[in-house]
Amino acid sequence: MGGDGDEGRGLVAGAMAWAKEQALKLGQAALLAYLLIDVTVYAVLGLVVRSAFRAMRGTEPWEDPRGFLVAAAATWAGNNATRPLRLAGAAALAPGLQWTMGYLQKRCNIGKLLAAFALAAGYGGAVGLLVIGWVVATH
Question: In angstroms, rounded to a whole number, what is the distance separating the alpha carbons of residues 39 and 77?
Answer without folding.
Answer: 15
